[in-house]
TrEMBL record:
Family: Belongs to the dus family. Dus3 subfamily.
UniProt KW keywords: Flavoprotein, FMN, Metal-binding, mRNA processing, NAD, NADP, Oxidoreductase, Repeat, tRNA processing, Zinc, Zinc-finger
One BP term from GO: mRNA processing
Enzymatic reactions: 5,6-dihydrouridine(47) in tRNA + NAD(+) = uridine(47) in tRNA + NADH + H(+); a 5,6-dihydrouridine in mRNA + NAD(+) = a uridine in mRNA + NADH + H(+); a 5,6-dihydrouridine in mRNA + NADP(+) = a uridine in mRNA + NADPH + H(+); 5,6-dihydrouridine(47) in tRNA + NADP(+) = uridine(47) in tRNA + NADPH + H(+)
Keyword Zinc appears in the UniProt entry: yes
Protein name: tRNA-dihydrouridine(47) synthase [NAD(P)(+)]
Organism: Denticeps clupeoides (denticle herring)
Biological role stated in the UniProt entry: Catalyzes the synthesis of dihydrouridine, a modified base, in various RNAs, such as tRNAs, mRNAs and some long non-coding RNAs (lncRNAs). Mainly modifies the uridine in position 47 (U47) in the D-loop of most cytoplasmic tRNAs. Also able to mediate the formation of dihydrouridine in some mRNAs, thereby regulating their translation.
């Protein structure tokens, strides 16, 4: 292992930007691979034309529609340097097509599942019931093999599957591979799905929150009888601050009023030492990533060595309303052995009730509170980073969730809200009193976003303040050397975010302490595995295929920033260095280096077939870390 000086945390060594013709802020690449933008686009497009000729010679039909072009407005901005400032942040006005819009004629679920009984909706059903008519208008199959059929023994999408000819007979009946089906033994690979009966009860507000009401009632008494907004409690009489024994009696009183047999859990409240204990130390933590941190991507990262995974940020109010799209963010694959969910909210009552709801209905190892989200929609209502400035509410949220959960409560924060005004070191001692089990600190403020490097010196200071509670550091980790330098601080573990999106094999590099010069064919295999996992998660019908494609394209907007190790003049690549235009060692490596949306679509067509005629895509995020 090469020893790395901690001094480089503040002043990382950079080669002369003028060397090898590199621009300021651009990564240093060997001169033989450098090229101009015009030549790069010409070679990539010519290579794609040659590939199309080869496929035509093999007898494959080329798609009739033209390749998806990047929107003109976006293309002009990319070429116009004067519009650079507008390229920051999110593409808020991007075209957004829902996956089901690409499937013009959809078959009724009762037909797909081959139910013996007739459709519940009868003549009022808006879906197709004539299989022959549906098959005549259905888009052509994408291949001769169905991943779901080969893996599970039966494809749950039947004739609507885009690989249907692999598992349907002449009468459009779904075939079953009994041997594979028997080997799977009917096991469920994904947990934490939303039960329909629970969803109905949530929408009708018929789910009881006894433990939450007990906590909120005691909190109300501590505040001198102040009302909690939309409280369901009927007791308005002020009371003195209850003692610990009185609080226990209050909990028991609420439990005794339940219907049915009493259990120990009804009468005895768990002490902190009796809660589930999780050993977080010396682990690699895949950050909860909005949009890109989906279940198929987490499966990829688990395979490469991620120790801890966490679901995407879920809004507590949507979970309490039983929104299926929000509950989908809580799903857990069987390979995720240490898994948590992240909640967003700004009120103690909703966050506590949501925590109790999850505690009773899903399997998780910890629940994380998002107090680091910088986006305006979340911050302006007092959630995310806003909680760092509302410590009174923050404390009530943490204590309330701790009182109803059987698993640890963790918190993710930033250095502060305003640039150059750090406040995390003031919050951490308070969090220790509140009962937080793990603190993750992103070394940037809300205002800073990604325009500057993460402050690891400050993270080091905070880790000492947090002791003995584990504190994980987060920011700018793109190589095992970055990780080793970060571990020289006092952090208990590392959280990896953008680094995992750019190259998910970073976890392998860190654990094996090596730079992996991964080939383009290996990278394509990773993308292919993602599409397989996507079809297993979202479906192999048209809607599922296009949803998988959308998330694949979102991910490709990050992977294009990766520069192969063999091309670098100086190893390792830095996360804030912009990749210049360069030619790869083969056409696929060059295509993967393209930052043009149209080239990402071409890669997706290699894995998921041609895009629909009305297809359009623009990535959600733009690179905001380059100067």
């Amino acid at each position: 292992c090469t020893k790395i000086c901690t001094k480089s945390l503040d002043t990382p060594s950079h080669s002369n930007p003028e060397e090898n013709g590199a621009e300021k802020g651009a990564a240093a690449i060997k001169s033989q691979y450098l090229t101009s933008k015009e030549k790069f686009n010409e070679i990539v497009s010519s290579g794609w034309k040659e590939r199309n000729k080869e496929t035509e010679e093999e007898g494959r039909d080329a798609p009739e529609e033209e390749k998806s072009e990047e929107p003109a407005g976006k293309r002009i901005k990319l070429e116009d340097a004067s519009e650079k400032k507008k390229m920051r942040g999110q593409n808020k006005s991007r075209p957004h097509m829902k996956p089901h819009t690409y499937d013009g004629k959809r078959l009724c679920p009762s037909i797909i599942k081959e139910k013996q009984s007739k459709c519940f909706y009868g003549d009022k059903c808006k879906f197709f019931h004539n299989v022959a008519e549906y098959m005549a208008s259905k888009p052509p199959d994408l291949g001769d093999q169905c991943y779901l059929f080969d893996t599970l023994g039966k494809c749950p999408y039947g004739v609507s599957c885009r690989f249907a000819k692999a598992h349907t007979d002449a009468d459009f009946k779904n075939l079953v591979n009994e041997e594979v089906l028997r080997a799977n033994g009917g096991r469920t690979t994904v947990k934490n799905t939303l039960d329909k009966e629970l969803q109905w009860r949530l929408r009708k507000r018929q789910v009881p929150f006894k433990a939450s009401e007990a906590y909120l009632k005691s909190m109300e008494r501590e505040n001198g009888g102040e009302k909690r907004g939309k409280s369901t409690s009927t007791e308005d009489k002020p009371a003195e601050t209850p003692t610990e024994a009185q609080q226990t009696d209050l909990h028991v009183e609420a439990a005794v009023k339940t219907v049915g047999a009493l259990t120990d859990a009804d009468l005895v409240k768990l002490r902190p030492c009796e809660k589930k204990q999780v050993d977080f130390r010396d682990k690699l933590y895949l950050a909860p990533l909005t949009t890109c941190g989906n279940l198929p991507f987490r499966r990829i990262c688990k395979r490469f060595g991620a120790d801890i995974t966490c679901g995407e940020m879920a809004m507590c109010t949507n979970l309490l309303q039983g929104q299926a799209s929000e509950w989908a963010l809580l799903k857990r694959h069987e390979s995720e052995d240490l898994f948590g969910v992240q909640l967003e909210g700004c009120f103690p009552d909703t966050m506590t009730r949501c925590a109790e709801l999850l505690n009773d209905n899903i399997e998780v190892d910890f629940v994380d509170i998002n107090s680091g989200c910088p986006i305006d929609l979340v911050f302006k209502k007092g959630a995310g980073c806003g909680l760092m400035m509302r410590t009174n509410k923050f404390e009530k949220i943490v204590r309330g969730m701790n009182s109803v959960l059987d698993v640890p409560v963790t918190v993710k924060i930033r250095t502060g809200v305003q640039d150059k005004t750090n406040i995390a070191h003031k919050l951490i001692p308070e969090m220790k009193k509140w009962g937080v089990s793990l603190i993750t600190l992103h070394g940037r403020s809300r205002e800073q976003r990604y325009t500057k490097l993460a402050d690891w010196e400050y993270i080091d200071v905070c880790s000492k303040i947090a002791s003995p509670i584990p504190l994980f550091g987060n920011g700018d980790i793109l190589s095992w050397e970055d990780a080793m330098r970060a571990r020289e601080t006092g952090v208990s573990g590392l959280m990896v975010a953008r680094g995992a999106l750019i190259k998910p094999w970073i976890f392998t590099e860190i654990k094996e302490q090596r730079h992996w010069d991964i080939s383009s064919s290996e990278r394509l295999d990773i993308l292919r595995d993602f599409t397989h996992f996507g079809m297993e998660h979202w479906g192999s019908d048209t809607q599922g295929i296009e949803k998988t494609r959308t998330f694949l394209l979102e991910w490709l907007s990050f992977t294009c920033r990766y520069i192969p190790v063999g091309l670098l003049e100086r190893v390792p690549q830095k996360i804030n260095e912009r990749p210049p235009f360069y030619m790869g060692r083969d056409h696929m490596e060059s295509l993967m280096a393209s930052q043009h949306v149209d080239d990402w679509v071409k890669i997706s067509e290699m894995l998921l077939g041609p895009v629909p005629k009305n297809f359009s895509f623009l990535p959600k995020h733009k690179a905001n870390a380059y100067k």
